[in-house]
Structures are given as structure tokens and as C-alpha cells.
Amino acid sequence: VQLVESGGGLVQPGGSLRLSCAASGFTFSSYSMSWVRQAPGKGLEWVSRITGGDGVTTRSTDSVKGRFALSRDNAKNTVYLQINSLKPEDTAVYYCAKTTSWGYDYWGQGTQVTVSS
Description:
This protein is mainly β and about 120 residues long.
């Protein structure tokens, strides 16, 4: 299993980024995928999750609702996190994780998002 994130960078407050997570080595369409972030000096924070299989649904933590949108392209084995109206407190390393009913079993290497003027 391999998960490779991309799309991070330095952006001004109010800006947008689209993070991507390219997956391989498992039946991508069947699994939920999550984004988890870690701000400097803080612990891991779950951000958003998209389910796999039929009837795809998404859930996000309250602090990003209305600003972050999660989607997936099963043909490309890729999950996306569109992040809008970025705030300095969104600065973090963003990880995607393959998600099972008992937690996260594989992680990507992370992509840095820095929000600063």
C-alpha cells in the first residue's frame, strides 16, 4: 500500500489549495479515506473522511465545515481535499490515511500547508 500526498504550499489567509492523495496497492474504491492534520507543536487532528463503496458520504470536523470539501476519483485512485478560506490556524502537515472500521492502517508522508501573509 502506498499513499502519496501532494498540493501543499504557502498561501495567504483567505486563499485556497487542493490537496491530492494518490493511492495504490489496494482496492481503493472499497475503502474510506481520511485526512488528518498536525499543526506545529500539536497532536494529530482528524479533518475529514469520505466513505468507499456505494453511497459515498463525507464528514468533516466542525472547524472546517463550509471551507473544506472532500471528494474522490476512483478511476484515478485519488482522494482530494479542497481547502478554501484558509486561516493561519489551518497551518499543518496534512496526511491522508486509509481508513478501516477500527482506525487508520496506512498513512502517507504528508504535505505541508502554511497559511501566512
